[in-house]
Each structure stands twice: as C-alpha cells, then as structure tokens.
C-alpha cells in the first residue's frame, strides 16, 4: 500500500522546563536584545554603530577588529559571562560604558540581566530565527485515557480535548469513514459501486486491512492525481489565461495533464522537481520532460501597449524567483526584490542572483495576446493523431526531396520559356476559379475606369507594366461596388502591380472599410517602404495589423499580394512581393479567435482601389484583384 504523507501537528502540547534548567535564545534572549540593542546594533546599516551587529551569530561570537586593525575578543565568550563584553557592559556603572546608553532611556531589568548571564554560562547556544528552526518531534503526551488512542495523532487530539474538558465523539461508522477517505484521497464522494464493495455487510467497523484496500483502490483512480495535482497547480500559479491586459487564452493544459500523470504514477519528488526546473536541459530530454518545464511559463504575462519590454522580463523573472521561494524554500522572497530584511537569510543579492537563472530564456516581454505567449512552443499531437505524427517527418523529408528534384528539372525549362514569354500572353490566360473581381485597368477595352473614379481625375501612363496604366493622386480612387465584402472568418486574397514614385503617409491599394468610427473592414496598404494589411472588426480592441519589413522598391514595378486564411490570427496573413513571401511583423493581434463573430459587412461604403491618404504616383495594369480562397 502507498501511504499518503501525514504531517503530525501537536495540538497545544506544552512541556515545561524550569527557567534555571535551560535558557533559549529565541524565547528568552532575542526579545531582550531586539528591544534594547537593535536600534544601534541591528540590521539597519543606517543606524548601526561601531560595526557591531547583535542580530547575527557572527556579531555575538566572531572575534572583532578594532580601529587599529588589532583583533579583540568576541562580544560573547561562551561559558564565561564575566569575560563577555556584552554582559559586562550591561553591569557597568559608567555612563559612557553602560548598555543600553542613558540617552536611549532604556534600562534592563535585573531578571533580564540574569537571563543573559545564565544563557552565557550554559554555552550561549545560538538559534536562528524561529521560522528557520527545523521542527522537532515532540514526545507523546500523557492523556486521561491512553488506551483510547489508536495512533500517535489520537494522543495529541485527546490531550487537547482534555484541556478543553471535552469527551471524544463516537467512532465514525464504516459508511462515514469510506466517504471521508474518498473525499480526502480523490476529492469526490465514493461511487455507489465503491461504497457497496467496501462497506462491511454486518455493519462492523472497517479493519485496517479493509481500509488499506480502499485507499489503494482510490489511489489507483485518475481522480487521485487530479485531486492532488490541483494543490500543486495552485502553487505553480497555473492558469488557462495570461493574467494581465486582455487576460487572453493560454494553452498550457499539457503541463496540467503532466502534473496529474506524475501524481498518478507516484513519481519521486526529486525527479518531479528536476524535470520542471530543467527538463529541457537533461541529456536527450523526452517530450514529457520538456512539457514539465511548463512550470516556468505559468507566470502572468502582458501585451499591454506602452509597457517596457525589459521591465516585463524583469517582472517575469521576479515572479519565478518568488514561486521558487514559496514552493521549494518555504520562504516568501518578495521583499528581497527591493531590500534586505532582518532575520531573513535570503538577501536582495540572493534574489537577483537567482533571477539570473530565469533570464536566459527566449520568452518575449509581450505575450501577443496569443495562446502560445510569444515564446518557445512545443507542438504536441493528440493521442489519436500520434501514429500519424510519428511518420510525418519521414514523409515531409521525402516530399522535400521530390520538390527539389522537380525544381532542378523545371528551372532550366522555365528560364528558357521566360526569355521568349510576352506580357500580353501572361495577361491573356489568367485562371478564373474563385476570382471575384479583376480590374485589368489597361484603358481601351471594357468599361472606362474613369467613369467609376472619385476624387481627382485619374490620368493614364502609356508606359505601364501591361499596356496603359492609371495614375492616382491624393484623394482619387476607383469605386468597386460590393466587391470585397468579406467576414473575419472568410479566407480571401488581393493582388496588384504597383509603382510608387513617392509615398508620404499611408497609401491603400485596395480596401473595403466601414464608417471611420469603427474602421470595420480590411485594407492592403503601403506605408513608407513597408506593405501592410489591416483586418478589423473593431479598432483597436478586435483587429489584426501585419506589416512587412522594408520590401517596397519605389520607382520600380512590383507585384504585391496579400492572402488571409480566415483564422483570426496574425500568422494567417501572408504578404508576397514579386512572388516571394515577405517577412512580417504583427503590430496588432487582438482579433479574437475564440469568439464566433458574424460576418462583417461594410454597409456604409463600397470597396475602393487607390491610395486614400498621402501622396503617390501609382501606375498599375491590375491594381485590384480579389480572390476568395477555396
């Protein structure tokens, strides 16, 4: 049987010693020096005099160095009060020698001086602060009825009952005991089947063997690990959200499940600790050991604009130090973040030395309001998907080899074709599947574009990319009617050939935006030498903004394309320049993927193709092409 750990806590058990038999530093001496000596000889360096500290062991017993560098006897010489400076200064009649000095208006009582003498005579045994003294096993107390006790705990309970003048309650019946054990082991009442299985038929009490069998069965249930894990997860500050700013969803449940499994398999605590603190640093770490390090990612994080990234990282590291203190040291280390505390063995220096261990990760200072928190991510398959997951790497490698072989074969053929291809031929045979709108804008065929223009008149540049091309100026655009009315969950693409001689501010190639207050809709734009995409349900609380890093070459034609997969995530927005995927940065990622948003319709305006702000000279043979992804 696996026996759960029992903490034996005495209930008001007192053992009396005559004062002359033993003097304890914490109980008898520390209060005297704290009240009368600490102001000048305590933890505060601002008020400390002559470099003497009486709040530390070294202050009492280490040899002292005088102003000339000569060694002097310690303040207390164990077993010799008459040679101990501390005691002699208490007895002095000289106002310049007596301690505490007269100007403090403090005076020791004769009983206090006698306690100090006896303590030194007894060898001046030192004790650290009471909170740092290891608990000692108390002797079993005598009770009014020792035969009543069935284990040591009963004796302490009976002693407390005797003090209160109470009698023990009757022994619980078997059904009550089974219920209590089930609630304690699994956090749940027993099932009817379990109760029927373990309840004695004759109404007798449970024997020790029956009770052990019940506990074994309960500890074999998944509920046992779930119940025990919740206490650990509280200490580990586990949560399914980031905690600050929007308190967005955080996908940490694999770590939660790992903790549950660890309790269910009765993992040794030292291994349980090692894997959480450094599972990824073990030789050839397993997937489970990497998951265990989720402990380090349970801290609250933020994505609030205006916060300082370095400050956030410092706060994250401080949180981890504090958690290590609470969980593993049994200490609150929070105060040491700013200053040292008297009696506290954990100094401010220790705090930042430990925080250095937690500043060598690649986690970012902003969580991006995304489930993985903008840090290292471990992708995990479900149990059902794991067989397929295990064979995918080999299949992907084989596929890459096939792609490389096809590229090697096709590249010379493409280069040969490219030398003879004509632009008109490229424009003549464009696939139409999924195409919602295509504007050739090569003036001379179809509906004249000028009849749909708004703002300043559109002029034409005969030397366009593919035939004549429109030239837009500030405030001019083409109205595209109902085209481009997509919802936030719909996938779509837009592409154009552009040539910008000069860009000041923001130029929209193609957009469908609602009224200015909500800015609802989407647009594909250029700002400086960067391209970007807005997808907005409500700005700025529910929106995506993704921009490239200096991809536009002004004065040259470039083909630009944006595509969105309808996922509601910044990663779902891709921007291509001349057929090459551009590196992008997410500037706003608050479009909430967990909400079921209805399709957003730009009822107040039609789609537009043009720059809307700033100044630009944009020549384009196809400035606007809308495609819905299939």
Descriptive notes:
This protein is α+β, with helices and mostly antiparallel strands and 630 residues long. The chain folds into 5 domains: 25-132, no CATH class; 174-220, no CATH class; 225-358, no CATH class; 386-421; 435-628, Jelly Rolls. It contains 17 helices and 19 strands. It has helices spanning 25-36, 38-41, 57-61, 85-91, 110-121, 152-164, 174-186, 192-198, 208-219, 222-235, 253-264, 269-278, 287-292, 309-329, 348-355, 386-420, 423-428, and strands spanning 64-65, 71-72, 435-439, 453-454, 459-461, 469-472, 477-479, 492-498, 506-513, 521-527, 530-538, 542-548, 558-564, 573-577, 580-581, 584-589, 608-609, 618-619, 624-628. Strands 4-7-17-9-10-11-12-16 form an 8-stranded antiparallel β-sheet, with no helix packed on it. Strands 3-19-8-13-14-15 form a 6-stranded antiparallel β-sheet, with no helix packed on it. Strands 5-6-18 form a 3-stranded antiparallel β-sheet, with no helix packed on it. Helix 1 packs across helix 5 and helix 14 crosses helix 15. The chain is elongated and about 110 Å long. The two termini are 60 Å apart. Residues 1-19 and 593-625 have low confidence and may be disordered.
